[in-house]
Each structure stands twice: as C-alpha cells, then as structure tokens.
Amino acid sequence: MNASTTTPATPINLYADFDSTLTLHDTLSALAGASPTHSHVWPAIAQAYLEDLARHNASYRPTAPDRTTLEQELAYLNGLRPVERRSIHRIEAARLFRDVTPAVIRSAAQEAIKGSKSAVRLRNGWADLFQRARCSGGDVGVVSVNWSKRYIRELLLADLELSAAGEGSEHDVRSQVQNMVVCANEIEPPTGQLSRCFAGEDGDDEGSGIWTAEDKLRAFNGLRQSRCRGLTVYVGDSGTDLQCLLAADVGILVRDVPMNSSQRGFADTLSRLDIEVRAVEEYTEHSRREGRLWWTEALGKIIDSPLLAAMS
Questions:
Q1: Which of 55, 124, 198, 279 has the most crowded CB, counting CB atoms within 10 A?
Q2: Which residue from 278, 276, 274, 275 is spatially nearest to 307, judged by alpha carbons?
Q3: Residue 122 φ/ψ, nearest 5 degrees
C-alpha cells in the first residue's frame, strides 16, 4: 500500500455505495446465483421487477422531464418504496435464498471474484482509498441497498486475497474490511427472508430494509452522528445515492468514460435539477462550500486530487 501514515489535521470519514461504485457492475444477479434454485426462479423475479418499475414510471407524475426541483425528485425516489417492497416479497415467496448460509455466501463471493467467469470485479484503487481515509483518523464503511452485507464484505476480502493488497501495512486493509461498518440488508438463514432494519411507521407493521434513497440517508446519518468527527465524504453512482451525496461534506460520483446508460441517466437528472458536478481534480475548499458535487472515473484519482491534499 502506498498511502501515507501521516495523520492529517482533519479526519476523513469515507462512506461508499457498493454496487457500480466500488464494483464495475451490479452484483445482485451474482448474489442470486448463490441460490440452488437460481436458474428456475431468478429470471421471473428480475423480469417482474422491471415490469413493475416500468408501470410505476409510466403512471408517475410529474414525469422525469417535468421534475425540475430537488423536492420533486426526492418524492419520486422515495415513492419507489412499494416497488422495492413487492420485489422483496417476490424473492421471499419464491424462497430464492432458502438454506443459503453464511458459508454458501462466502463460497459464492470467492467464486465471483476468483472464478473463471469473474462475475464480480472491484474497481482499482478502492483499498488504497479506504486505507487513506483510515490513516487520516477517520471512519470507513459501505452504505448499500444490496441484499447481503455479508456478501459485500466477502467480496472485498476475496478481492484483497486476489490482489494481495494490504499486506505488510501498519493499517492492515484486511482487518479494516473485517471490522468496518457495512449498512446493508441481510439474508437470514435458514428461511432466506431478508432483514428489516427499520421499524414500520404509520400502521406499517412489517418495517423495511435499506431499499430507497431515503433509507440510505437514514443509515448514513446514523453513521455520521455516532462514528464521525471531521469531514464526511460519500462516493456513489446513482439516484439511490442522491440524498447521501448532497448530505455529505463532499459528494463524489463515480462515472465511467464513456458513461454507461445508468450513469448517463443520473447525470441527466442532476442537470435537470441544476446540480453542478465538476471533476474532482478541480476541487477547492471554496468550491466545496458552494455545495456542488464532484465526479471521477477512477477511485485512485480521489487519492491524488486536491480534495485529500486540502484535508492534510
């Protein structure tokens, strides 16, 4: 690892989304592959979700082009809760994750990272970025709508094993990953039910997991209040990250060059809301206070940017 062990004056608390932020692509399909019934039930579950989302978007008002304020966009994002809830119910009714134990999840993560198909790939530089934040005296963690916090942690550990990252370091990245906070959902063996970490409100006896942008903000705010001193940096890539990106002291978008369709859609949303996004290389303390967001196509560029230099 090449991060400095000099402690900056300002601790950096780094929290990141997982799917398509720390990874190159979404990992839910790979996680579903841990189920022995995957091939029989997963295609129907995935298709039903896409159709439900399409129906919701077709009927929702105002339509995307007419949502020009942050309040309108957040109402849309948080209005997706029934769509996400129905998807969770389909997964549980199909018993997709029945008898999927922690050992099965670990094996699936190892195969996804190290197997011949390389079903999951982590972005270069994530371990160095986490270590830099920890060396500053800050906290690190993941905030995700993924179905399994255990799967997230096992993927990160498997990637470290593959790359041999973090060996011989004073701040052992492997130990950091094993002990860092991961705010996500979880598969509960042996039933395969998905966890509900938030109590229900207004007559909702079921409660909810981390399903929407609002849920991610709730988890993120909990981390900020209980674990943080100094500045908070949030790294994300999509609409479910919007509230966390705006709530952080520094919000950074991960964008490939060229952007994929999901990233382009989120970029269009930010443009429509008149939220300015600049390259992280242009960061200044003055511009941070103006409330804009930043973007990078490589996690390593965050380490080399004026952002971290300004916190040193």
A1: 198
A2: 278
A3: -85, 150
Give the tens place of pLDDT for each residue, 133-159.
Answer: 998 899 999 999 999 999 999 999 999
Which pTM value belongs to this model? 0.93
pLDDT score recorded for residue 117: 84
The two structure tokens encoding residue 309? 């230099």
**Closest to 235 in 3D by CA, of 137, 158, 159, 303:** 303
Q: Report which of 146, 156, 144 is spatially closest to residue 219, judged by C-alpha positions.
A: 144
Count Cβ atoms below 10 Å from residue 19 Cβ, excluding itself: 21
Q: Read off the pLDDT band of 169 (50, 70, 90).
A: low
DSSP secondary structure string for all residues of 51-90: HHHHHHHHH-SS-GGG--SHHHHHHHHHTTHHHHHHHHHH
20: nearest Cα among 216, 256, 190: 256
Helix (H, G, I), strand (E, B) or coil at 183: strand
Predicted confidence at residue 310, as pLDDT, reads 58
| Distance separating alpha carbons of residues 13 and 123, to the nearest angstrom | 20
